Amino acid sequence: MKLTTKVRYAVSAMCDLALNNGTCSPVQIKDVANRQNLSVQYLEQLFNKLKKARLIRTTRGPKGGYMLAERPSKIIIGDIYRTFEGPIALVGCIENGAGRMPCVMSGRCSTKPLWKKLSGLIENVLDSTSLEDLVK
After folding, report:
1. SS3 category, 115
2. Which among 84, 119, 78 has a CA at the least distance from the CA of 5?
3. How many CB atoms lie within 10 A of CB 19?
4. How far is Cα 24 from Cα 22, in angstroms, rounded to an integer?
5. What ranges do the domains of the chain cover?
6. Residue 69: its pLDDT value, please?
7. What is the dotted CATH code of the domain comprising 5-135?
8. pLDDT attached to residue 109
9. Rounded CA gap, 135 and 131, in Å?
10. Angle at the Cα of 14 (from 125 to 17), degrees rounded to 5?
């Protein structure tokens, strides 16, 4: 399993906000982009999704910028992951969701319990790790 660059860069950018006073005062996107070696345009795409997910917020004006929506201890890495990738599942057949086609092997799949257990372990790690844990 590989994490997408969107998830990795979003987590790094969120850590950057936490480390650079983005809990108390706005941080300009160009500063985050420079520190993280990302383009402002790409970071804006990530921040737009994080804002829609209510993980960050914006302030307008000359001293405006981006801030964490909560304290770093309240922001869970699993929530950042799900913002970009949806449910944490190694294979589609273990996701519960409307419109999903059932796997043709569903009734007789000997590997599904393994993928479900492994997905659960990954989900547990992501959901038990906060932004604060990463920036300590």
Report:
1. helix
2. 84
3. 15
4. 6
5. 5-135
6. 95
7. 1.10.10.10
8. 81
9. 6
10. 140
